[in-house]
Every structure is written in C-alpha cells, then in structure tokens.
C-alpha cells in the first residue's frame, strides 16, 4: 500500500512543479506590467506638468488634459488622453486586480499552462476594456465642462465650490449600502460555487463583469481623482492605496467607510476654502 502511495505522489510531482512554475510566471508578469505602467504613468505626469495649467476665474487652474495641444486634432487629443488613461489604470488597478486574476486561475482549474495564460490575459483585456469605456466618458465630460467654464466666467467662479461638493458626495458614497454590495462583488472569489469553464467567451465575459463591478465600486474614488487632478501623482498614489486597501484588507467595508470619512472631510475643507471660510 505504501508503495502505491509513493507511486501516486511521484506521478503527481511533475504536475505540481509545472503548476508552481506557471504561478511564478503569472506573478512575475504581473509585477513587470505594474512596473512598466507605473514608469509610463510617472513619465506622462511629468510631461503633463511641463505643459502647465490654464488660470481660470475664481482663482483655480484647469488641466491641459481637457483640450488639444497646439496643432493637435481632437482625434489626436482623445487618443493621447486614452493612452495616458489606460496606462494609469493599469498601474492603479493591477495591485487589486492581480488577486482576482489569481482566483480566476484557481477557479478554472487544470487547464494547461499556456492556455491558462491566454485566458488570464483575455480576462485582463476585458477588464481594462471597461475602464477604457469609462475613460472615454470621462474625457467627453471633461471637455464639455472645460468648454463651458471657458465660455461662462460665472460658472468658472463656481467651480471650486462645486468641486468640493463633488468630493464630499464621493466620500459619502463610500459609506452607502450600494458601495458595500459592489465591494462585496469585487472581493468575492469567482466560481465560489464551482469551477469556471475554460473557454475564451467565458474569460472575456468574466473580465467585463470584473471591470463593471470594479468601475461601480471605484466610482467615488475615481471621481475624486478626476476632480483633484487626473495626472497628479500624489492623488493617484492615494487613490491606489485606498482602492487596494478596501479590496484586500480584512474588513474591507470598514476600510471603505474610514476612507469615505476622510474624503468627506477633504470635501468640507475644499468648500470652506472656496467660500473663504477656511
């Protein structure tokens, strides 16, 4: 009997070793993607900072991300923004996405390493396709609001107060039951009731679902980033830490509420400053 057990274990050892190699490769690729996207984001932020900002009525400045550069078409401006947006989203979301991709790999089960890698990439592509759609919506909205602010000085003067109100609302959203439900969807392991089919269609749809839940869950914090400065490295670092913390830390709902309280406080401070009370 002992010989049979040893034979079974010996037969399983090569498979276990292969699995460990594939797992190590997965985390290695994730780390490289994060490093590359972070470096590109830092470079893009420096480039955007070099362009300066436009002074506006009301004592604030508007980012040049919402308008084409000299000689640039709107198509070029849109492509440039989306390029920066996608790279930034990879850097910001990959720390919390990697565990979700890992859980997907576990749920798929015994698929071969190469095929599992392709399916994992497809999940990631679906996930960031959703964030690309959100980026398009953000750019269109930002361009429209920037155009209105430049044409209507009275509206421009109200922007600092409006931004503070938006930040305050975004912080309050962190403490709602809706936020808790979205966060639970993001933290839940895929296939917890069984394995997931190992096919491209399922992988793509799973990536889209992850992206939608993540987008809904991060709506408030993403709005804060857009309001504070879409390419501000400090804002990006803080929002990344907040998103990662509420996704991965024990008691994520409590973490989200604490983050919400801090954001609400920041909104109050912004409103006080804009109205001359702070």
TrEMBL record:
Transmembrane segments annotated in the record for this chain: 21-46, 74-98, 119-148, 154-173, 214-243, 255-272
Q: What is this protein called?
A: DUF2182 domain-containing protein
Q: Name one Pfam family in it.
A: PpoB2
Organism listed in the record = Paraburkholderia ultramafica
Q: Does the keyword Chloroplast apply?
A: no
Record keyword Transmembrane present: yes
The organism that produces this protein has a lineage beginning with: Bacteria, Pseudomonadati, Pseudomonadota, Betaproteobacteria, Burkholderiales
Top-level lineage group: Bacteria
The UniProt keyword set, sorted, is: Membrane, Transmembrane, Transmembrane helix
